[in-house]
Input
Amino acid sequence: MRKMSKILSLCLMCLSFVCAGSVFAGDTIVIKGSTTVLPVAQVASEAYMKMHPGVNISLSGGGSGNGVKALIDGSTNIATASRFIKPDEVKLAQEKGVYPIPHRIAIDAIVPIVHTENPVTELTTEQLSLIYQGKIENWKEVGGQDLKIIVVSRDTSSGTYEVWEEKILHKAKVTPKAQLQASNGAVFQAVSKNRYAVGYIGLGYLNKSVRGLKVDGIEATAATALSSEYPVARPLFMFTNGWPTGTVSDFINFVVSKEGQDLVKKEGYVPLF
Amino acid sequence: MSRKVKEIIIKNIFLLFALISIVILGLIILFLFMEGVPIFTVVSVKDFLFGTEWCPTYDPPEFGIWSLIVGSFVVTIFASIIAVPLGVLSAIYIAEIAPPLIKEIFKPVVELLAGLPSVVLGFFGMAVLAPWMQETFDLPTGLNIVNASFLLALMAVPTISSISEDALYSVPQEFKEASYALGATRVETIVRVIVPSALSGISTAVILGMARAIGETMVVLMVAGGATAIPESIFDSVRPMPASIAAEMGEAPFRSYHYHALFATGIVLFFLTLGFNLIADYVSHKFKEVGSATL
Output
């Protein structure tokens, strides 16, 4: 009798697994890509999973390029990117029969930052460009103390760098003396502990331990970024292969909904509305 | 099943396992070359190795890794300058001088240092050592060659120490006894007899320690600063090869020239560590102290 019930329960268990498999099939969403989008994707997926207990979202960073790469080889459902997809990537995707569709989910403003003891409060895009090219090497040239400027930049292939290159440097080369940090957090860390340093991070990473500079007299805030007044802002994307369906579409709808955009705001990015 | 057959089966199973690691290594090397070699269609080997401009995302891109190679060598050499005395002297202390109780404590502690995750060391360098160094010496940046070298030295010490220690232990007891019998003091015995006879082993230890330092990624990524300029002082930032690969691979478009260039950098790094290992192997065989005469 005991054996019987054991077998029965085992059968039931198997059955429930099978059922679960059919009911929740495809309810695992894999998200990969930009570290800039990561905090948003993180809170959004936590909130979404709380609302839909059967859904499982697996999340990883690694950079916009990695996300798109993963979308192309089919190892992710959603690729997050802090830049638009590159022509090379589109070509590669089409060769593999993948059709990346962009979904704008937030706007990110990139803020130049300095140490809190640095008296400089604003720079023009021109000054920032010259500093990053290594043509202005001392803070006194831009109204600061007589200190050498330590330029902190991101790795040249990060999405954040690409925006900086486009909006500030206008394709000029960064001085080879610039320090390289591999993430927003690392740039923040390096600048917050160094009176000589200037760096740039996403608005979402800005807090009181560093000073965000005004650019061309405009402070980076949600309002100025959304109105395109602030010069160093960019949209953030989630890419899917073809128009999303089922859970993936539901998730993206959630991110761009009022609730999702509140989360975007909470993370320090600029919501779409 | 006869014992003989069993024996053969077991033998082959072991052979298989040994082969797996060789095959995997072979495949990794093959992959490394397949992904790295295409860069040489746009840049010559000489320009790649000795070009000083590393601007892989510009138009037109430039792939010269000389400053990265210099960065790697500079931090490795400084790390060795710190790690070799530390490692060798601690090995001598543990192997020859320390009383058994202290030896019991020291040996595992030094080996524990080897188990310390490099990212933890990197954090320490970034959050503690760099600000301290900057304040104390009034430097523009604490993320520099000295900082990275110091942390790399900490990682190389256990390798150098434990291999040197083995070398010291393998010096025949008779050498020591003969030295004492001739009236030599303990210090004289260590300096003139034991260390010279263990020299090949110690050299191997040093070279393997350096190989460890040159291939280390996380620490140099976090604390070396990452500037691609050729350093002018030991307080400048550099970007060693592994740091460049780790930082840029994430966002280099798949199969782009930048991607291939990073793999080619990996090939250079592979040849360097291979070189270090071959030298270590050569030294340990060539200058091995063999045999001892006893009555």
